Amino acid sequence: MFDSIDWSVFLGRQFWFGIDRFNGIALTDKIILWFGVGLLAVGILVMVYRIVSKNVLIKHALGRISSVFITVGLLEMFWFLLRAQFVNTLGTRFAALLILVVGLAFLYSPLKYFWKKYSHDLVNHEREQIKQKYLQKR
Predict the structure, then answer these.
(1) Residues in CB range of 88: below 8 A, 6 or more apart
(2) How far apart are CA 95 and CA 49, in angstroms?
(3) Is 66 in contact with 106 (CB distance < 8 Å)?
(4) Are 41 and 19 in contact (CB under 8 A)?
(5) Which residues contact 68 (CB under 8 A, 6 or more apart)?
(6) What is d(CA 54, CA 67) in angstroms, rounded to the nearest whole number?
(7) From CA 102, how far away is CA 29, in angstroms rounded?
(8) Cα separation of 101 and 132, whole Å?
(9) 88-105 per-position pLDDT tens digit
(10) Residues of 10-35 as b/e, b for ≥16 C-beta within 10 angstroms?
């Protein structure tokens, strides 16, 4: 399956910065479009989970994650529109890659919270809930 792919094309300047006006939309452009649609769907699912979740500790982080997914998904779909209209600078595949990299950079903070602080905050929140439970009985 991967034997027929010419990998040197992905390293060329034309692939990243050029727009082929004669062949129209390439398969990689469609893959980027559907990747954007997938990110939008995942962002909406994370937003719905955030709304129905009763865990107050993750609501803020899930809100940021869903915002990033929805934003990057919409920007990737907008990029496909620009690509289809042959917009020179913003329609390049480099612009699509730049959108994705910036989106990943914005995911750093909420993911760092889950990796480093969430378990500590969860333990403190459970202790606080137990303390509030016994203080209310008086």
Answers:
(1) 19
(2) 31
(3) no
(4) no
(5) 43, 103, 106, 107, 110
(6) 19
(7) 19
(8) 44
(9) 888 888 999 999 999 999
(10) eeeeebeeebeeeeeeeeebeebbeb
| List of residues 6+ apart from 46 with CB closer than 8 A | 62, 65, 66, 69
Please write down the HEC assignment for all residues of 34-85: HHHHHHHHHHHHHHHHHHHCCCCCCHHHHHHHHHHHHHHHHHHHHHHHHHHC
Reported as half-sphere exposure (CB side, CA atoms, 13 A), residue 57 has a value of 14
Q: Which two tokens stand for residue 118?
A: 């969430």
What is 4-32 written as a DSSP string? T--GGGGGSHHHHH---TTT-S-HHHHHH
CA dist list (Å): 54 to 49, 50, 59, 128, 133? 10, 8, 8, 16, 17
Task: Spell out, as residue ranges, where the chain has pLDDT lower than 70.
Answer: 1-2, 137-138
With H, G, I as helix, E, B as strand and everything else as coil, classify residue 125.
helix
pTM score over 0.70: yes
